[in-house]
């Protein structure tokens, strides 16, 4: 399933995080041999977290086939782990090579096969004829949405129950807040986790919180889109294209 973070979360990769320099400079990549068209191909590198990986380390991967080349930025996922995610839009053989200012992460090469999509994989959602939405394969997309602003803040048992309920409903879009939101009427309890390691320290993201946001549960339950709202405004939206 395609699961990608909205830009409001990816922007946090620019924040400073200190991790003790207890890792080596050797990087290794984990890769699969095939992925469906429009699904997610993920590269994982175990590298060094020395210094400030968010600001001191740059990482990109160039993906190429016989007709096109796409350069994708990587990101730091904590504990010395670096990742690159790519959604191939064409079937066939793809090759990649990484580029980084850290020698251990640069020059990593490999290839994979993009195969035909199956089942409910119709590709990402796009705008057509100004007023309509459709999947990449031309299938129509009809947005039927609901709101669960506190979904990322409530305890995980409630998150799971919400996803279970949505899977049995006609909704294919859910709108939520990335950061906690206080209500005059509703849930005023403390969130299960904050987005940062401490409530008022914005220099250290809480990896557990964002990995929970990055969970494929919404796509697995049948959800196609979610909108991330922060500070009372819509900061990003993402349509997974998998129903």
UniProtKB/TrEMBL annotation:
<dbReference type="InterPro" id="IPR013783">
    <property type="entry name" value="Ig-like_fold"/>
</dbReference>
<protein>
    <recommendedName>
        <fullName>DUF5060 domain-containing protein</fullName>
    </recommendedName>
</protein>
<dbReference type="Pfam" id="PF16586">
    <property type="entry name" value="DUF5060"/>
</dbReference>
<feature type="signal peptide">
    <location>
        <begin position="1"/>
        <end position="29"/>
    </location>
</feature>
<keyword id="KW-0732">Signal</keyword>
<feature type="domain" description="DUF5060">
    <location>
        <begin position="35"/>
        <end position="101"/>
    </location>
</feature>
<dbReference type="InterPro" id="IPR032260">
    <property type="entry name" value="DUF5060"/>
</dbReference>
């Amino acid at each position: 399933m395609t699961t990608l973070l909205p830009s409001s979360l990816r922007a946090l990769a620019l924040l400073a995080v200190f991790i003790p320099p207890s890792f080596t400079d050797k990087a290794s990549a984990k890769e699969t041999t095939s992925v469906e068209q429009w699904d997610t191909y993920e590269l994982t590198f175990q590298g060094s977290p020395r210094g400030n990986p968010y600001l001191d380390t740059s990482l990109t991967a160039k993906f190429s086939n016989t007709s096109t080349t796409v350069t994708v930025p990587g990101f730091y996922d904590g504990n010395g782990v670096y990742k690159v995610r790519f959604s191939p839009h064409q079937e066939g053989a793809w090759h990649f090579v990484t580029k980084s200012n850290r020698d251990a992460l640069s020059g990593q090469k490999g290839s994979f096969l993009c195969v035909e999509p199956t089942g409910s994989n119709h590709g990402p959602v796009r705008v057509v004829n100004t007023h309509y939405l459709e999947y990449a394969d031309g299938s129509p997309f009809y947005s039927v949405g609901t709101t669960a602003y506190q979904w990322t803040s409530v305890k995980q048992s409630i998150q799971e129950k919400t996803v279970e309920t949505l899977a049995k409903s006609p909704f294919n879009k859910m709108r939520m807040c990335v950061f906690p939101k206080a209500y005059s009427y509703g849930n005023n309890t403390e969130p299960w986790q904050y987005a940062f390691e401490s409530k008022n320290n914005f220099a250290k993201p809480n990896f557990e919180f964002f990995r929970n946001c990055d969970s494929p549960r919404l796509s697995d339950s049948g959800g196609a889109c979610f909108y991330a709202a922060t500070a009372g405004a819509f900061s990003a939206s993402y349509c997974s294209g998998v129903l």
